[in-house]
Specification:
single chain; alpha+beta; seven-stranded antiparallel β-sheet; two-stranded antiparallel sheet; 13 helices; 13% strand; globular
């Protein structure tokens, strides 16, 4: 199976943002996508599109050079979608999953592709009431696609911990920062990418999957990070859906800057730092379980295990020149603010505790935050200052 790799501008960026549809009165997920999309005149190539379930939609930006322009694009689509949703008594939810709605109660759309997913995946397919954020970053040649795929997968803990927004599942505190991650990896062809170095390996892999009946189209390879030949990009599918535009911008900037850093390494004398796939897998689990409080494994044998926040701060510092060159310095810097103030899963758990476990209050928080410029509910209690970035010696 040979793939034509489309031309795209180096480090261009596009964002896909999946949102849940919530009944404004009951705060439950509601199958309103059909009438909502009809009101918007939506189709397969419009900025607002249908997804697998009737209780969710996807907002898609165009391809942009600057992260800020991609987020502004999404903000425009959000405003139009929200106006139409309001008329239907529906609110928009930016979260990895709904805190208490039943997954199996959600209705999928019908159609050949969706029917095949439903029939093949059965129980696990019925659990896919989950929403993610997908970030495309442009690469100029297919030979860069797999190294960038592997490189971004290595930084899985950053993307997941900053975006984790699914601690509650069907009314239960899962104990995980991202329950969505644990669910999504149950489906065939999902999960971490396999380590490949040559494009011919990827084509041969797709051939084998098709020959065995595992896929019918390349898009059914649903790795957490994957090449996307149709668009000439690498697609980072790691993050949960997040509520605020600030979080979207931070995740897009981090993806863009790390991809640019990796490509620069490929073209220069430095070797791209590597981490064995079994340790990448362990880091994925740690980030899903503990979020920003995880301790992650690094390629540096002198500092083999580090607190995720400390390791993130090191990389944010390293990426400052890249972010300035790409025009996303402010968006990248917001990653540090999230690490200090708390990702969505932390804000949700704090709200639930303050409300005596009432998850309707958690949904209310998410609905108010969705589309806001940034999170505006700080974590209560002592210890927040301990998350601040350490002051360098002599600083």
């Amino acid at each position: 199976m040979q793939f034509e790799f489309a031309r795209s501008a180096r480090s261009s960026v596009g964002v896909e943002w999946e949102l849940g549809l919530v009944d404004s009165a009951t705060l439950e997920l509601t199958p309103a996508a059909g009438p909502l999309l009809a009101d918007l005149g939506a189709g397969e190539a419009t900025p607002v599109r249908k997804e697998y379930l009737q209780s969710m939609v996807e907002l898609v930006s165009g391809a942009h050079t600057r992260v800020g322009d991609a987020i502004a694009d999404l903000a425009d689509s959000l405003a139009r979608t929200r106006a139409a949703a309001d008329g239907l008594g529906v609110a928009l939810l930016g979260s990895g999953c709904h805190p208490f709605s039943s997954a199996e109660a959600q209705k999928p759309f019908t159609g050949e592709r969706y029917d095949r997913v439903k029939e093949r995946t059965r129980y696990w397919g019925r659990q896919m009431a989950i929403c993610g954020t997908h970030i495309h970053v442009g690469v100029t040649h297919r030979d860069q696609a797999l190294p960038v795929t592997n490189g971004l997968a290595r930084f899985y803990p950053f993307f997941l911990a900053l975006s984790a927004s699914s601690p509650f599942w069907e009314g239960v505190d899962s104990g995980y920062a991202s329950q969505r991650t644990m669910l999504f990896q149950q489906l065939p062809t999902n999960g971490l990418p396999y380590r490949m170095t040559a494009w011919s390996e990827f084509e041969a892999y797709a051939d084998e999957l098709a020959e065995c009946g595992m896929i019918t189209v390349p898009g059914e390879i649903r790795w957490d990070v994957r090449p996307s030949p149709k668009f000439g990009t690498v697609e980072n599918r790691t993050p949960d859906s997040v509520p605020t535009l600030g979080e979207l911008g931070a995740l897009a900037a981090l993806t863009q800057c790390l991809a640019e850093y990796i490509v620069t390494d490929l073209e220069g004398p430095r070797e791209v730092e590597d981490l064995p796939p079994w340790l990448v897998k362990e880091n994925k689990w740690r980030a899903a379980r503990y979020g920003l409080d995880a301790e992650v494994i690094t390629p540096d044998h002198g500092k083999r295990v580090q607190p995720l926040r400390d390791y993130l701060y090191e990389w944010l510092e390293r990426l400052i020149p890249v972010s300035r060159r790409l025009g996303c310095a402010d968006e990248l810097a917001f990653c540090e603010q999230l690490a200090i103030r708390g990702a969505s899963y932390e804000r949700q758990v704090a709200r639930a505790a303050a409300a005596g476990g009432d998850l309707r209050e958690v949904v209310s928080l998410l609905l108010v935050e969705t589309g806001a410029a940034s999170p505006f509910v700080p974590l209560p209690g002592p210890g927040r200052d301990d998350r601040a970035r350490p002051t360098p010696a002599g600083g």
